[in-house]
Amino acid sequence: MTGPEPGALAAVARRHGVAPDEVRPAPRQGVASHVHLLGDGLVLKVARAGDPALAADLRKEAVVVPHATRLGVRAPEIVEFDGVGEMFGSPYLVQRRAPGVAPPGDEPGADAYRELGRQLALLHAAPPTPLAGVTEDRAGDARPGIEALAAGGYLSAPLARWLTGWLDELAAHAPAEPPLVLVHGDVSAGNLLVDPATGALTALIDWGDAAHADPAVEFAKVPPRAVRSVLAGYAPGEEDAWWPRILWHHVAWAVFRLPTGPEPASATHWSAQPANRLLELLRHYVDFGGFGDSAG
Questions:
Q1: Please, is 203 exposed, middle or buried when counting C-beta atoms within 10 Å of its C-beta (0-12, 13-18, 19+)?
Q2: What does the pLDDT look like over 160-188, one tens digit per residue?
Q3: pTM for this structure?
Q4: Aminoglycoside phosphotransferase domain: which residues (predicted)?
């Protein structure tokens, strides 16, 4: 798919005092948007054409990011937004370029993960606020679908019964109706920036998956071996209480990912390939013998 038209890129750049020859594609491109750097200080995101959901995600981001920054969350400031997008045929926004780089090897360290927890605590603690485009995302009960997986040959019937029983035990640790809070929705390493010298977290980017959801869902986007570090910043001293709620989502998502199609090796997200999440859970328990992580 072709990217934004060069003339339109140049026009937006000039409007912000950036010469056209200082416009370049960002090293990492988003699934939902074409991303260009405007000089050293600005970032342009243009929703990919052809899918109304991608345009809606960018419009949502334009609403959620200012709200998050008012709460004290480290998100890049938006300096221009066009929700109609006549210039590119899709909505676009311009943000100040946040300091930092992608975590090396997509592996944030313990300090970055703890700061992520503190940032999420600020976000989740805010009173529920209606925000345009932000919908409720109530996690469904995974247990009825396990029987269907067994019937389809993905699990044996005895293993399906055991798994359902384990999910019953984990569910007993969660509220029957979890409170819904504003969540970022995808706090994977690809959406974090860190200081290249210290590894400290500098920003949370790409807010297009934001929703009102159970806060435990937020941690299912973090590798299991890193959850304790995030919780150490989010709810110090309460890590053990949160783990069963978070594990419920990890287990359910891992099992239902198995029957889906493969992803190429170039997809580097920690849970991209079908077996990754299940094996990350195994890695967590093999390495640490239970709830804990190497980052400390």
A1: middle
A2: 999 999 999 999 999 988 999 999 999 99
A3: 0.93
A4: 37-223
Q: How far apart are CA 56 and CA 132, in angstroms?
A: 10
Half-sphere exposure of 189 (CA within 13 A, CB side): 22
Residues with Cβ within 8 Å of residue 267, at least 6 apart in sequence: 273
Residue 95's nearest CA partner among 208, 222, 211, 212 is 208
Minimal CA–CA distance to 78: which of 54, 59, 102? 59
Cα separation, 175 vs 64, in Å, equals 27
Which helix (H) or strand (E) segment holds residue 281: the answer is: helix 276-288
* C-alpha pair distances (Å), 157 with each of 160, 161, 162, 272, 275: 5, 6, 9, 27, 20
Token pair belonging to 50? 């052809």
**What is the rounded distance in angstroms from the CA atom of residue 116 to the CA atom of residue 226?**
11
Residue 166: its H or E element: helix 157-171
58 pLDDT higher than 80: yes
Q: Identify whether the C-beta of residue 203 lies closer than 8 Å to the C-beta of residue 220.
A: no
